């Protein structure tokens, strides 16, 4: 009798559990299954004497971001090219795009390292940052996009004319804004995922409790575009070699080393260095033509009907700008460098973190050179629940 009652109780409990699971909406059941799978992936193969998995899986992070970029493009006008315009000598143009340092404020939400973030620029017009990422015990990837506008551009000119050497440098605002878009995708694989956690240093989904390092492999895709092809920027475009828009794409692979140092309890310092081989390096320039020509003397008209630029601002009323050609350039294989560093302090369910990343890219074809340095620093306050 007692066995029958016990068996009935077990059947009743199992029925209630099955009903409670089946009674949930399919969305909740799917999310529970995904969460269970992610939980298993997080702890799979790790040494918990080195890496601790927090009990609370969810994270909300408030982030402050500071970022900067420096893009310098250098081109050369040969003596033959200058002569075709009725000028003497040769000329080098260098346009340096160095906008003021930007800062943004936003949030990131994730479940054990899988999540997304969004932030608003505090110092640049129409600035937006978006990121999405995922990390496991041996792998991870991040996708970051950035968009903003600015009107600041620095231009330098040097060369030789009939009076000898000539050099000028100027910083000015463009008539209409320059639109900038940047996308960075990077993925990595660690050989020592058992004792070293990249996630502990850069998304804090787990905690490194003993020092460890790892050899790592990585890939990176970098894409950026600068567009200042607005009509009232036509004269600036002519000064910059008739180029009004530039797109740069680079694909890199690398091998590096990362180390997590735990000097005291709850404090983590990470340093990552990865030399990278740029296997794909492509730039695309968009050329534009206007109805005005800066090289004409006052009152002159070119054979194609272009007019000289008047001394006043009347040209703003009827200036035109049309795209006339594009040029794609592929640079040879080269080297670049990816460097990162982070500092994290844990306080039970809270943590403070500061980390930064530096990337440097180069594209050289004949006498034309493009150099790009891009870096950012994040400061964040996270909470687990």
Highlighted features:
alpha+beta; single chain; 385 residues; 14-stranded antiparallel sheet; 16% helix; two-stranded antiparallel sheet
Mean pLDDT: 79
Rg measurement, Å: 28 Å
Major β-sheet, in short? 14 strands, antiparallel
The rough form would be described as: elongated
Order of helices and strands: HHEEHEEEEEEHEEHEEEEHEEEE
Helix content: 10-25%
The structural class is: alpha+beta
Give the termini distance in whole angstroms.
Answer: 46 Å
Report the oligomer: single chain
Characterization of the model:
With 385 residues, the protein is α+β, with helices and mostly antiparallel strands. Helices cover 16% and strands 60% of the residues. The chain contains six helices and 18 strands. It has helices spanning 2-22, 26-43, 79-84, 198-202, 234-239, 315-318, and strands spanning 51-52, 58-77, 90-97, 102-111, 114-121, 125-135, 139-161, 164-190, 207-208, 212-227, 243-261, 267-290, 292-293, 307-308, 321-330, 334-347, 350-365, 368-384. The strands form three sheets. Strands 2, 3, 4, 5, 6, 7, 8, 10, 11, 12, 15, 16, 17 and 18 form a 14-stranded antiparallel beta sheet that branches. Strands 1-9 form a two-stranded antiparallel sheet. A hairpin with a 2-residue loop joins β4 (102-111) and β5. It is elongated and about 80 Å long.
